[in-house]
Sequence to fold (117 residues):
Amino acid sequence: MSTLALWSVIDVTALIAGLAVYLFIVGRQLTKVAGTLEEAADLVWEIKKDAEVIHGGLTQINQTGGIVAGALPLLYGMAEGIVTGATYVAEEPVESVNKPAMGVRRSRQMHGVGIDI
Fold:
């Protein structure tokens, strides 16, 4: 056998050995991924089973939430009217008392229902 043929056989053997090691490593990693996916699938089925119990009342919950969200601007306006009418106004401001730094009172309730003022 010539030197060129010998080196060709050694190269092919090294290539096959390298591919075998590569396939072994990839196979182990895929086995780990398959185990993890199986555990995740079991968790998803448990979540689905738990969600089916909730599904029946979900329509009623959404309807009630819509009614409450629709009433919030009206309730907010009424509350502002009550606060404005019930706020104490001093006849003569005392100059020695510190004034609040926050300025005009502003509520963030309207942002919660999607109305920006």
